[in-house]
UniProtKB/TrEMBL annotation:
Protein name: E3 ubiquitin-protein ligase listerin
A Pfam match: Ltn1_1st
Signal peptide location: none
Subunit structure of this chain's protein: Component of the ribosome quality control complex (RQC).
């Protein structure tokens, strides 16, 4: 019962065998056994040499691998291809060459496999064998190149990339085109066979392949065939002498009616590839289409409104080439109407998902449309721009910022072109109203996406070009009317927005005017559009020997024209603000006054629109802007400062001095901060601003403000300065860090006074007062800004301030929170590091001067450690701090002399000597030790007077004074740090260090250790 065990398990194999046995059998076979699956591979061109490979010469390993490639299972194929690639890298050259004759046919089948991983592995295997055989590939080129070319355009990107890289590595850049020309006939024949003869059923085995897979494979081969021919044309276009040879191979394919039917194929993938090939033919050689122009025209024109957006860019590029190569398409009125109708349909749909690729072609297309084809030019342009703008404003287009920007760019390029060829008043009334003003209005109201596009920049640019051309070109005087027309219509929209008072809409208007003044302010990275010769910025005057106007002069001309047009609206904004106190309206007014000032506007602001008087910028600032700088609201201050600076830059130097001197101390802190920052930015080019920054007027004002900053309770009577602590912090942060420059923002004398004030505030915190964390952090942060400045070390009072900062750190280590102590410590170390750097670079001899900051701070540390009230915690904190100080100094001076450890350096020894108590100090401290601690050791005989120097005088009471222990601990911590050598010492080795004159410190440490241990035992025993 059951299956007969002797029955064969595999068809054709009566006796199962291992892979090794198979290789042995195949090695002795006389024929290429097992490749029956390769008998029907479709069309594969015969080898040019006509040689027949002797399959008995192939090595056994390659036989097994090649046989596995014929299996139906994708995994088996992939593994076989990987094995083949490995063999190509490990086998001898002769063995690899023996497999070469059989490779092209197998490669041709695997390169079009349904499974993309198989195709990718096939390209890797092909790359491997091609790299090994070198010139031996030549006899097989005509066979392998058709498959190879199609592989380079495989829709599976990794496969295409590998195939392309293999081709580039196999042939030099000079030889690639020649190889394709050499095999052009075989390539074209292979492509023609794919296009005209093959079907889904012939390319796949219907018995083992799903219908869906057969269809997708067929469509992929169709599109790859078309794209492959495009690749051949693009690669060989540089070989002009060989073009006739290639054209002779390609022309029969183009004359086949089946080729033109592919343009209507159901698959968008195939249609895209077909029109891409047609574009390549146009670029390669128009003569290929000689005699079939009507067919080309019908095919392209009928596809202009293809329903698939992915196809349209290829169709429109082909249409553009057709317009240039075959102008006769416009001779038939019906053709023209059909073209326009189809174009408008696509434009109204927003490019059907491909707007960013379609829109750039519009300007070249309309520039090629002859007037006869338009019939009614005005109607044509109206229809064209209406379709374009409606398409841009469609909701699905608005979701793509790329499509919107490309559409807007194309719209205004086309408008600029039409303005140079058509001046019809009625037409431009419509275009300005609906294509310019209406789009801006929509960006303010219902199409906010337009406001974040390049719309404002494009309008700004077209207005500039019109302004330049109407002043420099006699033939363009009519453009002045277009500019007036735009402003009349646009200002009506702006007035309506003012009446509504919507905050969002007013903010959009602010954006528009900002970009109008500086087109690059909002969109710094823009695609450059098509340029015409008459758009060049270097417009030439018709008289005076064609002297060129600079861009600066032309920009000035534009701003003057715009200021004149905007003056009434600016006045309206100011009156509207006075009436409603709307901040957004004030912002618009500030931008308009700052960007587009004019004498007419000045007069209207001060005396009303009815009178025109001569008014200086100085008058406007004094009467209109300075009062606003006394307000506390930043929403008012920011635009007011911008207006101040804009008008300030237009004044004469004497007027600038006058206006800066007129600044009062009633100025708000926010306004003062902004003015100081802005004036610092321009001080290098503005001597008046530089002088004001260094003046006593500003310096003395800042000195007064530092008290309010450090002691907020003092600001209660300061009126306008109360509640502006954040602004004060920002102001002094900027001033003390010198505006990120090496030069001080204000005079060094006033920086010194500010330091003295800060020092006094620190000293005002006596030992009985617990400082507030907020105040200490504030001072520390301000000090950090100051210490970031290189020039601060030249300031009087800096050393005294550092000392006060250090004493505060010592005093407040208990009362302040941990974060504040760390901030204070980091600030002090930053100061110390800066001081050491400055001193070493400028006056190294003063580094450890007796009256220098380093010596004074070390003496302070010594004094604090030796105080009876000092604690172990404070002692350890100070030892850590001194450790950092030693490291900072050593890093700056270690190059002066050779030293293996810090303790060996003379300057470090000098610092340590300052910290070590004097002999009298030691005597006094040792007098506090209790003599009882030595009794056990003496009685046990473990020490003697000759071996151990005891203190000279010891009290007999049991009181334990810890001062000696604390000082010993402090000095031992320092010795450990100074004797440590990270450069040489490892975890397993310990370097012996000779202490020399500092051996006494080790003795002191032994005293303290013994004393502490004994005293703890005695105290514990006494309590028991």
């Amino acid at each position: 019962m059951g299956k007969d065990k002797s029955a064969q398990r595999t068809k054709g194999n009566k006796k199962p065998s291992s892979s090794g046995r198979t290789a042995e059998l195949l090695g002795g076979a006389t024929g290429f056994v097992g490749f029956s699956a390769l008998q029907d591979l479709g069309y594969v061109p015969a080898a040019s040499q006509g040689t027949t490979a002797n399959d008995s010469t192939i090595s056994a390993e390659f036989r097994v691998t090649l046989r596995k490639m014929t299996k139906k299972d994708s995994t088996t194929k992939i593994k076989a291809l990987q094995e083949f690639e490995t063999l190509c890298g490990s086998e001898e050259a002769e063995s690899i060459k023996s497999a070469l004759p059989f490779w092209p046919r197998i490669y041709g089948k695997l390169s079009v496999d349904v499974e993309r991983r198989v195709r990718e592995a096939a390209q890797s295997a092909n790359k491997a064998i091609v790299a090994q055989v070198g010139k031996q590939l030549a006899p097989h080129l005509r066979v392998i190149m058709p498959t190879w070319v199609l592989a380079m355009v495989d829709p599976h990107a990794p496969a295409a990339l590998i195939a392309t890289k293999a081709f580039q590595e196999a042939f030099s850049s000079e030889k690639r085109a020649e190889v394709l020309i050499f095999t052009c006939k075989e390539i074209v024949d292979h492509i023609a066979d794919n296009l005209f003869n093959q079907t889904p059923q012939t390319l796949s085995d219907p018995k083992v392949t799903d219908e869906e897979d057969m269809k997708s494979k067929y469509l992929r081969i169709l599109s790859c065939s078309l794209n492959g021919l495009s690749l051949v044309l693009a690669t060989t276009s540089s070989l002009s002498a060989k073009k006739p040879e290639a054209s002779a191979s390609i022309k029969p394919l183009l004359q086949n009616p089946k080729f033109w039917k592919l343009s209507k194929h159901k698959s968008p993938q195939v249609r895209s590839a077909w029109f891409s090939l047609l574009k390549g033919i146009f670029e390669y050689d128009n003569d290929l289409l000689e005699g079939i122009w009507p067919e080309v025209s019908r095919t392209v024109l009928s596809s202009l409104d293809d329903h698939d957006g992915a196809v349209l860019p290829h169709v429109w590029v082909a249409f553009l080439h057709l317009c240039v190569a075959y102008p006769d398409i416009w001779t038939d009125a019906a053709n023209s109407k059909s073209v326009f109708r189809r174009m408008y349909s696509v434009l109204r749909d927003g490019g059907r998902g491909s707007g960013s690729e379609l829109y750039p072609h519009l300007l070249p297309i309309i520039s090629l449309v002859p007037e006869k084809a338009m019939e009614d030019k005005c109607n044509f342009y109206e229809e064209f721009f209406r379709a374009l703008s409606n398409g841009i404003c469609k909701d699905q287009v608005m979701t793509s910022s790329r499509d919107v920007s490309a559409g807007v760019k194309s719209l205004y390029e086309c408008l600029l072109f039409v303005s140079s060829v058509n001046t019809d008043v009625k037409l431009w009334n419509t275009l300005v109203k609906y294509q310019m003003v209406e789009l801006v209005r929509s960006s303010f109201t219902d199409k906010p996406q337009l406001s974040s596009s390049n719309l404002y920049r494009e309008i700004s640019q077209i207005l500039r070009i019109w302004a330049w051309k109407c002043n420099f070109e006699e033939s363009s005087r009519n453009l002045h009317d277009l500019i007036d027309l735009f402003w009349v219509s646009f200002l009506l929209v702006c007035e309506a927005i003012l009446e509504v008072g919507n905050e969002v809409q007013l903010a959009k208007a602010v954006d528009f005017f900002l970009v109008l003044k500086t087109p690059t302010s909002k969109f710094s990275s823009m695609r450059e559009g098509v340029k015409f010769s008459d758009e060049k910025l270097n417009c030439e005057l018709p008289e005076g020997g064609k002297s060129k106007w600079s861009n600066k002069e032309k920009e000035k001309l534009f701003l003057e024209m715009t200021s004149s047009n905007l003056a009434p609206f600016t006045l309206m904004c100011y009156k509207c603000y006075q009436k409603d106190n709307n901040i957004n309206v004030y912002n618009i007014f500030a931008i308009l006054l700052s960007s587009f000032p004019s004498s007419r506007l000045y007069s209207a602001l001060l005396y009303g629109a009815g009178e025109e008087k001569f008014v200086r910028e100085l008058d406007v600032v004094q009467k209109l802007i300075l009062p606003k700088l006394e307000e506390d609201s930043l929403a008012i201050i920011n635009p007011s400062v911008n207006m101040f600076l804009s008008l300030y830059s237009l004044m004469e130097p004497r007027e600038q001095e006058t206006i800066l001197k007129s600044l009062k101390q009633s100025l708000s802190i926010g306004a003062l901060r902004l003015l100081v920052e802005k004036m610092t930015e321009r001080r290098e080019s503005d001597p008046v601003a530089a002088a004001w920054l260094l003046s006593s007027q500003l310096g003395s004002f800042l000195v007064q403000l530092i008290d309010i900053l450090c002691c907020p309770e003092r600001s209660k009577g300061a009126g306008s300065h109360s509640g502006q602590q954040d602004e004060l912090i920002s102001l002094f942060n900027f001033v003390l860090r010198n505006g990120n420059k090496k030069e001080p923002v204000i005079s060094m004398d006033y920086v010194s006074e500010i330091l003295m004030k800060m020092t006094l505030n620190l000293k005002a915190i006596d030992a009985d007062t617990e400082p507030e964390d907020q105040m200490v952090q504030l001072v520390a942060n301000l000090a950090g800004q100051l210490f970031s400045s290189y020039v601060c070390w030249q300031t009087n009072g800096i050393q005294e301030f550092m000392r006060s900062l250090f004493l505060l750190l010592c005093q407040s280590s208990k009362s302040l929170c941990g974060d504040t102590v760390e901030i204070l410590k980091a600030t002090f170390l930053k100061a110390f590091r800066g001081l050491i750097t400055f001193t070493v670079e400028n006056s190294p001899e003063k580094l450890l001067h007796e009256e220098g900051t380093v010596s004074i701070i070390l003496k302070d540390i010594k004094q604090i450690v030796m105080e009876d009230s000092s604690t172990f915690g404070l002692t350890l904190t100070l030892s850590e701090l001194v450790h950092h100080l030693f490291v900072v100094v050593y890093e700056r001076v270690k190059g002066e002399e050779e030293s293996s450890i810090m303790l060996d350096h003379s300057k470090i020894q000098t610092m340590l000597n300052i910290l070590i108590p004097s002999e009298n100090d030691w005597t006094e401290i040792e007098n506090t030790l209790c003599p009882l601690y030595v009794a056990p050791a003496i009685l046990q005989g473990t020490i003697s007077f000759r071996e151990f120097p005891f203190p000279r005088n010891m009290q007999e009471d049991l009181t334990w004074n810890q001062k000696h222990t604390r000082i010993s601990l402090f000095l031992c911590e320092l010795l450990l740090v100074l004797c440590h050598c990270e450069e040489y010492q490892t975890d397993d080795t310990k370097e012996e260090v000779y202490l020399g004159q500092y051996t006494c410190l080790a003795v002191v440490a032994l005293h303290s250790t013994c004393h502490s241990t004994s005293m703890m035992d005695l105290l514990e025993a006494s309590h028991n």
